[in-house]
Specification:
single chain; alpha/beta; Rossmann fold; 49% helix; binds acetoacetyl-coenzyme A; SDR
């Protein structure tokens, strides 16, 4: 049975930033669908959300590197909860190493998961949004797509590409009630940054003007702002949230 709550699909919803986006959007009254990669982790994660009182969070196992799988998942979500009106592309991975050592697989895996996924999800929801004359798409990019990062040619390229997608799709949908924006977080306190060697990580933290990492909650509240129905004049934009580390 479908409810009347607007439906928000958050890819990477069980991750460090994604979890907080899901909970924030659920508090705002959305029916949240969290995308995941690891089914066992996702099931436990969902149980935790329910025990924390979030009955309006569900999960979807769409394989975001496959258009077919995304289309199938969107159909299932539509049948169970209603049409998706908010899409947040938050799924992302790192495979950091310098160009001289990077394998083609490390390049391709990051491009598929961090960029092609955004094509697959947007392509899967866009016709419903066009039919409804309403939609909000928020692409979670990165400071490293804005400035480049030593050891991340794959990640920086994918994240920069994401904003190209944002700007092009924003133009295609501007007269149709749909906004498409990019949010570029800096270094946020999640498991992802714990993979960086400690010495390098500490040097990065020192280089952030506010002298700390960001919190997932600081990203989530900005996602909710961009996804709000009153934010209709913001489209094709990039919002940097990085403690002043990069001022583009
Ligand atoms: N600028 C210039 N030189 C640098 C450098 C930098 N930022 N970082 C390292 N180097 C130098 C080292 O001093 C060393 O120099 P020497 O060879 O002269 O001694 C050399 O580069 C090391 O090169 P290697 O190819 O041997 O690299 P490595 O295998 O030791 O490690 C790395 C390279 C894995 C990329 C490591 O530096 C690293 O993890 N860096 C951090 C990458 C990073 O910031 N990732 C972000 C992850 S979080 C995220 O992505 C979320 C988000 O959106 C922000």
């Amino acid at each position: 049975m479908t409810s009347t709550a607007p439906v928000a699909w958050i890819t990477g919803g069980t991750g460090g930033i994604g979890s907080e986006i899901c909970r924030f959007m659920a508090k705002e009254g959305y029916q949240v669908i969290a995308g995941y990669n690891n089914p066992e982790k996702a099931q436990k994660w969902l149980e935790q959300q329910k025990s924390d009182g979030f009955d309006n969070i569900d999960i979807s196992g769409a394989k975001i590197t496959s258009l077919e799988s995304c289309e199938e998942a969107v159909k299932e979500i539509r049948d169970k909860h209603g049409k998706i009106s908010v899409l947040v592309n938050c799924a992302g991975i790192t495979r950091d190493t310098t160009m001289k050592k990077m394998t083609f697989e490390q390049w391709q895996e990051v491009l598929d998961t961090n960029l092609t996924s955004a094509f697959n999800t947007c392509r899967s929801v866009i016709n419903d949004m066009l039919d409804d004359g309403y939609g909000r798409i928020v692409n979670i990019s990165s400071i490293n797509g804005r400035k480049g990062q030593f050891g991340q040619v794959n990640y920086s390229a994918a994240k920069a590409g994401m904003h190209g997608l944002t700007m092009a799709l924003a133009q295609e949908t501007a007269t149709k009630g749909i906004t498409v924006n990019t949010l570029s977080p800096g270094y946020i306190a999640t498991d992802m940054i714990m993979k960086i060697p400690e010495k390098v990580r500490e040097a990065i933290r020192e280089s952030i003007p506010v002298k700390r990492y960001g919190t997932p909650e600081e990203i989530a509240r900005a996602v909710a702002f961009l996804a709000h129905k009153e934010s209709g004049f913001i489209t094709g934009a990039n919002l940097d949230i990085n403690g002043g580390q990069f001022m583009g």
